[in-house]
Amino acid sequence: MADADGLPFHLKDKVEAAAELPGVPVGTHGVVAAVAGLAWIRYRVRFENGVELGTLDPKYLAPRKS
Which domains are delineated in the chain? Predict the structure, then answer.
């Protein structure tokens, strides 16, 4: 869910993969490393399994549960 500024995630938020991503299984924990975009907000995430992916739409991420 987005907050007051309309962004679902912010820099350094703890997230997890909500979908299968290249080299990242569903549920893998990560940290938002960058936020970019104006009309289409996208994220760079460093996952705990060593994979770093950029240009991730927020639909592929979820807040970390634990």
Answer: 14-63 (2.30.30)
